[in-house]
Amino acid sequence: MTIRDVVSITNAKVLAGEEDLDREITTAFGSDLMSDVLAYAKDCSMLMTGLANAQAIRTADMMDIGCVLFVRGKMPDEQMLELARDKEMVILQTNSFMFTTCGKLYAAGISGGTL
Hints:
Elements: H1 3-10, E1 13-16, E2 28-30, H2 34-40, E3 46-49, H3 54-62, E4 67-70, H4 78-86, E5 90-93, H5 98-107
Parallel strand pairs: 2-3, 3-4, 4-5
Antiparallel strand pairs: 1-5
């Protein structure tokens, strides 16, 4: 599945990284706790979170996650978007709850990985 497909499935807005919408997404991780992302989000290509601060972008970068989808209508500020652009990361935003977003992507074939 591509990020473009994720945008369609989750009714997301593209906030940064429009040029990379054809990048593949195979696994995803959803959490507002960046410590959980660091501990468990191995080999994930997308992060879903409601934590709209620079820590989310920096954590995704540390884990080589190329796409962050902000849920619950959370909106990153311009400084976060600039950081994401510098890291060549795609940033998306949806008004849906995390549970709903995860469910839609899981039903469409995105894996959550294993421990």
